Amino acid sequence: MRMANVGGRAAISTGGAWIDLEAASEGRFSADPQAAYGQVADIRDWVGDALPADAPEATGELGVPVPMPRQLIAIGLNYREHAIESNLAIPEHPVVFTKFQSSLVGPGATVTLPSDGVDWEVELVVVIGKEGHQIPAAQAWDHVAGLTVGQDLSWREVQGRGPAPQFAMGKSYPGFSPLGPYVVTVDEFADKDDLAISCALDGEVLQEGRTSDLIFPVADLIARLSEALTLYPGDLIYTGTPKGVGMGREPKRFLVPGELVSSIEGIGDLSITLVGKAD
Length: 279
Prior knowledge:
Blueprint: E1 2-6, E2 9-13, E3 19-20, H1 21-24, H2 40-50, E4 72-76, H3 80-85, E5 95-98, E6 104-105, E7 110-113, E8 118-119, E9 122-128, E10 132-133, E11 144-151, E12 154-155, H4 156-159, H5 167-170, E13 177-185, E14 196-201, E15 204-210, H6 218-225, E16 230-231, E17 236-238, E18 258-264, E19 268-276
Parallel strand pairs: 4-17, 6-13, 7-19
Antiparallel strand pairs: 1-2, 1-13, 2-3, 4-5, 8-12, 9-11, 9-17, 10-16, 11-13, 14-15, 14-18, 18-19
């Protein structure tokens, strides 16, 4: 099942048209896209048993599929080759930072580059579906509502400002957390731990990898994060990026205006348009 924000309302699809969740369920489920992620199991059961054949379709544009997460957590250096290209040691523990909700944008967004030093980082994003604290890794996937595509755009100069790095600030400018185009529930993946992941600018491939190369896979991340945190339905975890970022190249390379398309196997393409800062 796919879950989306269509015209500001919760929508679902099993492969055809987008269905307005509240209208089709006659009010059983909310129109709030954020609320749906805590009810995934119930929604899926209802779709299998009671979705009417003439269910009303959702209308409008796709928006941020998870628009109001309580927590937006991100992981750095979580692919081995990315750590190597960054000239940093392979981490023994997850490198955890936050991004701010105001940086979220959905598919088709136009994002202004505030500098000529903004980097790209395609990421698999986990959407939490069940509250939990100190979750065992063996049970971690039971707490996942679904998976989606994200970009962790990064203004490297701001990220590196001292005396300590400013990850949250450098990665939270407007539009720096593209997300979408929709969320795919975990049951749709043949192997949820091994998905092709890539991004391209105007058709030129910038990154290619597989999520099986994660140093801390999804279940391990959830277990480690929940040692300290309580995770809530609709929380987001940006799980890290594979090798190929601009800062790791020689000479360094950064984003320019164009179409940036981020792709993950079994989910789809997240496309945004990058524009330069107006004079």
